[in-house]
Specification:
Helix content is 28%, strand content 30%. The longest helix is centred in the middle third of the chain and has 18 residues.
């Protein structure tokens, strides 16, 4: 009899189809739950159970009829909280709801990191009378750098505050000292509270503001083994501080001469199509995707022997240069012919409205590279991106 895994996800997103492919390769049945309207009858033809993320209780009750489940996985921050609640109800292994809630709230996470003795910037909830400059303002619950703005003086602070309030409807925001340094991302999986590092990414582009758009990730890291060990130790302490115990973790941090400064440890895997760059090996599988690994782990399999495939693996999240309507792109075939580039996928659709940071949280597409070294992977991504020429049309004015 096939094993069945519950996948909780947003109603739109790139990763769902990746999990379906992984489930098919493993011979696993996937049951989908998304935040869609419960009145419409399967509008996306994916047989998903409707779950309202703002009030998941009724949706979780509906999921009983689709069980029992052998495991549960989630894609995204809000889905992770719903998955945590469902896991408690169905007796499945996952992170506890309180830990996921803390990971999803930047202020709560900062409080837990400080209580655990992790290095961190001075911070407070806005409004704050006299912030120290430079500082960074952050909505509490957004991801993908959406709404994160650096302010160097009082005028920039007021402008950033107004901009974030417009995005959040006036909700509180975190204000913290700007932390200089190189930024990294760690992809991991937690079993019984123990973090296993799957990949450590360098972010070679400086992220100094005023906005913090991520572009290139390259693994393995080029940092010394000593620095890598310190990053992994800080990530483990962050996992413990939040109370995460079973499931994926995507952590981000900065490193400078004063040490490792945790930015976040989210209870979810890396977003978008980025996981396509990662392939893993263990004793019985080669070329295993991150989604396959997460499904195996959710079903209780031992994945402690999984290791990143040899070579260097790079991803470029193609940034949106300006807000407007996506009209088209030229140079894709030239970009695909660049040595070491394995794939160029433009995810923006013609006529789609694209929004740049800090209001936006998406990308025009993704470029993937596999190479012998991180330097070669990074070079391939930058060369391929140089061939791409996007046309972004002016947005129509909003009539109020």
């Amino acid at each position: 009899m096939k094993k069945r895994v519950l996948l909780v996800a947003a109603k739109t997103g790139y990763q769902v189809r990746e999990f379906y492919g992984a489930a098919e390769r493993l011979g696993v049945e996937l049951a989908l739950a998304t935040d869609r309207c419960h009145v419409l009858d399967d509008p996306w033809a994916d047989r998903a159970t409707p779950v309202q993320f703002a009030d998941p209780e009724a949706g979780i009750e509906l999921l009983k009829a689709r069980g029992p489940f052998d495991g549960i996985v989630a894609v995204g921050d809000r889905p992770a909280y719903v998955a945590a609640e469902a896991a408690v109800r169905f007796g499945l292994r996952f992170h506890p709801p309180a830990a996921v809630a803390a990971a999803n709230d930047k202020f709560q996470a900062r409080e837990r990191f400080r209580a655990a003795g992790l290095p961190g910037p001075s911070y407070s909830l806005d409004p704050v009378r006299e912030p120290r400059y430079p500082c960074v303002l952050k909505p509490l619950n957004f991801s993908a750098s959406r709404g994160v703005i650096r302010a160097n003086n009082a005028r920039e602070f007021e402008a950033a505050s107004a901009r974030i309030r417009e995005m959040t409807g006036g909700a509180s925001m975190l204000v913290e000292d700007f932390v200089p340094g190189r930024e990294f991302a760690l992809e991991g999986i937690v079993t019984a509270g123990q973090l296993q590092t799957l990949a450590l990414f360098d972010k070679p582009d400086p992220l100094d503001g005023p906005f913090f758009e991520e572009t290139i990730y390259v693994a393995p890291s080029r940092e010394s083994l000593d620095v890598q060990r310190k990053i992994q130790d800080a990530a483990q302490r962050a996992v413990n501080a939040l109370g995460l115990i079973h499931g994926p973790v995507h952590a981000e941090m900065r490193v400078n001469p004063q040490g490792v400064w945790m930015l976040e440890a989210a209870a979810r895997p890396i977003g978008g199509l980025c996981a396509r760059a990662l392939k893993f090996e263990n004793a019985d599988a080669r070329g295993m995707s991150l989604e396959e690994l997460l499904l195996r782990h959710a079903m209780g399999e031992d994945v402690s022997g999984a290791a990143l495939a040899p070579g260097a693996h790079g991803i470029m999240m193609i940034p949106i240069p300006a807000s407007g309507v996506f009209c088209g792109v030229e140079g894709v075939e030239n970009a695909r012919r660049v040595a070491d580039v394995t794939e160029v996928e433009i995810t923006a659709k013609q006529g789609q409205r694209m929004q740049a940071l800090p209001e936006g949280s998406s990308y025009l597409g993704f470029i993937f590279a596999d190479a012998r070294s991180p330097e070669e992977a990074e070079r391939a991504l930058r060369t391929a991106h140089g061939y791409l020429h996007f046309t972004i049309g002016r947005d129509l004015p909003v009539v109020r």
